[in-house]
Design brief:
Elements (H helix, E strand, L loop, with lengths): L24 E7 L1 H4 L13 H11 L4 E7 L26 E3 L12 E3 L14 H4 L7 E4 L9 H22 L11 E5 L47 H13 L8 E3 L1 H8 L7 H9 L33 E3 L15 E5 L1 H16 L13 E2 L2 E2 L5 H15 L3 H4 L38
Parallel strand pairs: 1-2, 1-5, 5-6, 6-7
Antiparallel strand pairs: 3-4, 8-9, 10-11
Length: about 450
């Protein structure tokens, strides 16, 4: 079966012109619905799927991609960890405490399992075992993405996402000895997600819908007295502040196992031509980490050089989010919109372009865009050429001038000399956290 993605290999034998084809980038996407991309209501069979859009972009620009996806809706990256999901479990044995998974993209015969109590949606690809299975050989990149609010809560970030990032990094380095990699070593990439249209609308973090993915408690457990105390809510109440809080949280992974952060969320703010980030919001968020860290030198929001490409200003930003149809009453806006917090085709295409620009250190301008093509068994949605052109320029202008911010240490792509982690931007260390509960072991 197809499993959690295609399993073909691309030949690297010389072509007739004598040029050796590039070795494919081998990339595993680990995340939730912000990765697998639920479809717009108008075309329920056409998912806004990040891995396939990334492949479309990269291969149109001459870079072959072998990918797989391990996605579970409403879940944490922590629940996907290899230590929690050994291969070869027999879930018919009650002692195994697991469930065999199957979906539109994963077959029972693929041997994928998750821990008991975790649920999944038909359009996801629940397969934590894809990491160790390595159908294409050792991974070049493993992408980690978490719940859409989790990185805005420092204690939850530390307990869940940063712990997962460190574990994935350790496992990749252990598996990657004596191998040849695109980035000199296998790397973890943090997928920085985006703020909601109007920011978070509830004073307490919402339930995940998949509580078994959060063994130390749902997110509200990490925000004490949130019904009376607005301290967390004040940092996420607007889309600009929520976006910065996400960016600040995800960037912390650069000192916790990740070697690159993919700034999709900051690209969304550029697409929206957002207002300047309030200093009080930025300072409050930074104070939870002991300082601004990697983002210190950035003037936010980042701007598109040609502002005519910021086509998603004001109410046009609705178009970045998935339309759920006229019968859906959205809590994400106050102007009778019908979208939720997921990416539309335009939003996910922007994410794919940001991934391309970040990982390949190259401009995505001129890339193919979704026009109903079939990519690895899935028909993509359609966006128009003017939007595609604008989104390509946004990704270019957000990513390429700041590669030293997004990349950390020895894995800065392709350069003989790497930026020094102790450079002028400074990096907040884990000791900069305020921790309201005991630190949790990576091995729990």
């Amino acid at each position: 079966g197809r499993g959690a993605g295609p399993r073909r290999r691309v030949s690297t034998t010389p072509r007739p012109d004598g040029v050796v084809a590039e070795e494919p980038l081998k990339i595993l996407f680990v995340g939730n619905s912000f990765t697998y991309g639920p479809a717009d209501y108008r075309s329920p069979e056409k998912q806004n799927n990040l891995p396939r859009m990334f492949k479309l972009v990269a291969e149109s620009l001459g870079h072959p991609v072998d990918w797989q996806e391990d996605s579970i809706g409403g879940c944490s990256a922590y629940a996907h960890r290899p230590s929690a999901n050994p291969a070869g479990r027999n879930c018919r044995d009650a002692k195994a405490m697991c469930s065999a998974t199957h979906s539109n993209w994963v077959k029972l015969s693929d041997g994928c399992t998750v821990n008991k109590g975790i649920t999944w949606w038909p359009d996801s690809s629940p397969c934590p075992q894809a990491l160790q299975r390595k159908d294409f050989g050792a991974w070049d990149v493993v992408v980690l993405q978490d719940h859409s609010q989790l990185p805005t809560i420092p204690d939850a970030l530390k307990s869940y996402f940063l712990s997962a990032s460190r574990e994935y990094s350790r496992v990749l380095k252990q598996d990657g000895r004596r191998q040849k990699f695109r980035f000199k070593e296998p790397i973890v990439a943090s997928y920085m997600t985006w703020g909601y249209y109007d920011g978070v609308y509830s004073q307490c973090p919402g339930p995940s819908g998949n509580p078994a993915c959060f063994p130390f408690g749902e997110l509200s457990a990490f925000v004490p007295n949130c019904t009376e105390n607005r301290s967390w809510f004040d940092t996420v109440e607007t889309h600009a502040c929520q976006s910065y809080s996400l960016a600040r949280g995800y960037s912390e992974s650069l000192t916790n196992g990740a070697r690159v952060v993919v700034p999709a969320g900051l690209a969304w703010e550029a697409a929206r031509g957002s207002e300047p980030l309030p200093e009080v919001c930025r300072a409050t968020i930074d104070s939870a980490y002991g300082g601004p860290g990697r983002l210190a030198g950035l003037e936010l929001p980042l701007r598109v050089q040609n502002q005519s490409y910021a086509r998603f200003k004001g109410s046009e930003a609705h178009r970045l989010y998935r339309d759920k149809g006229p019968t859906y009453t959205s809590p994400f806006c106050d102007d009778a919109c019908h979208h939720d917090h997921h990416a539309s085709a335009q939003g996910m295409y922007l994410n794919a372009l940001v991934f391309y620009a970040t990982l390949f250190k190259s401009s995505p301008i001129g890339a193919a865009f979704p026009q109903g093509q079939t990519v690895d068994g899935m028909v993509l949605p359609t966006i128009d050429a003017a939007d595609a052109e604008a989104l390509q320029h946004i990704a270019h202008d957000v990513v390429l001038p700041h590669l030293d911010v997004w990349w950390s240490g020895s894995s800065y792509v392709g350069d003989e000399q790497s930026p020094d982690d102790s450079g002028s931007r400074g990096i907040a260390t884990p000791s900069g956290f305020r921790v309201s509960k005991p630190a949790l072991s990576d091995d729990i």
